[in-house]
Design a protein that fits this description.
145 residues; alpha/beta; 5-stranded parallel beta sheet; binds D-ribose; 5 strands; Ribose 5-phosphate Isomerase B, Chain: A; 6 helices
Amino acid sequence: MIALASDHAGFEYKEKLKTLLDELHQPYRDFGPPTGARTDYPDWGHLASEAISTGQCDRGILICGTGIGMSIVANKHKGVRAAACESASAARLARQHNDANVLTLGERLTGWEAVIDIVKMFLSATFEGGRHAERVSKIHSLTKL
Ligand code: RB5
């Protein structure tokens, strides 16, 4: 189950993503907001990230203007590894090396066609494990939050 959330700056892509995820037969849950009215990304990003941290959702896609605010919010949650990606290559490496379970996108920075490639890559690329597994486990064991 993919957790979706945005703020006003990412709302249009969140809505378009639902159509894309339907086409890809990927189940999702929309954590809001329900409209494109001005709102604060932490309100929605925390909701979706909590669902990942507690295991209700296994992945997330969070969208704001830059993808940066949402990544900062998501990475405050235990067990969440969020990556702000502006290219499919970044999304591939975020999965292969970092086992990223949250993708954050910037609607003001990344065109929709690129977003389609990024999302497809994020959903299909797999974690390589091995030496990366040890590093990923240190992300959590050494976290001071
Ligand atoms: C909203 O104007 C914008 O600051 C927000 O969407 C995001 O880009 C923050 O990181």
